Amino acid sequence: MLRRAGYRTGLYTSPHLLRFHERMRVNGEEIDDNSLISLTNTVRNAAENMSEMPTGFEIMTAIAFLYFVQEQCDIVSLEVGLGGRMDSTNVIPAPEVCVVANIGLEHTAILGDTVEKIAAEKCGIIKHGSHAVLFGQSEGVENVVCVVTRYFGGILLGAGGLTRAYSKSARDALATAGVAAMGLWTAARCTCPYPLLERVKLEVQAVGGTVDAVDYGAEVALTLSLPEDAPRRLQDQLTELAAGRLRLELSGTELRPGPREDI
């Protein structure tokens, strides 16, 4: 359709079915041997000078991006390799539109053990200014995509089960789908003596956090998720609880949807 409209198009997909060249196409034609060899050498030389060697998929993605620039594509369709949020294709600025296809329980060790967790990872491709198209899914998945798209100011269109919420226009549907704020959460770890375990759990809950994992050893190591304003408050409580012997180790932040509220 885009080609018929006069656009020069690029397409990046994986895996290939018959030969590697299928992964990179311009106006429907596979990458030629000379371009593939030349661009592979360019990326290889750059990769060899990096402090950490890129993965194979990262190298392939870099080759594809260079090819689309070389061929002066007007618009490019990128298929993520795994998930979305941390995929190498997700280095691009906000895309014109994001498409979330059917979600099932796959790669659960990396993406999460529920379709809602996997949906949150896949929705990592949605950015400010992006609109989204969603294949008909379970209500839980639809809610996740609605929340993320609404947060970034986009319009969500869909098929199948989405007709439950999108019986009017797309904008009306966003209003009827409910409101959920996105919040900045911090991943943290804390080690405590076993006798203090239950008290520490209570302090985590008191600041609105969650205990995601507990590892038992000579001491107990807790993996925590804390809302944006919680780490300092929790550290103050832990300091008071154990006279400064308990410390939080913060390891990173991410945006997560908050509770969904019907309106």
The description of the largest β-sheet is:
4 strands, mixed
For the largest sheet, list the strands in their spatial order: 3-2-1-4
Tally of helical segments: 8
Order of helices and strands: EEEHHEEHHEHEHEHEEHE
Q: How many beta-strand segments?
A: 11
Distance between the termini: 38 Å
Helix content: 25-40%
Q: Give unreliable regions as ranges.
A: 159-171, 176-180
Which assembly state applies to the chains in this document? single chain
Q: What structural class do you assign from the helix and strand content?
A: alpha/beta
| Shape field | elongated
| Average of per-residue pLDDT values | 83
Q: What proportion of the residues form beta strands (DSSP E)?
A: 15-25%
Over the alpha carbons, how many angstroms does the gyration radius reach?
A: 23 Å
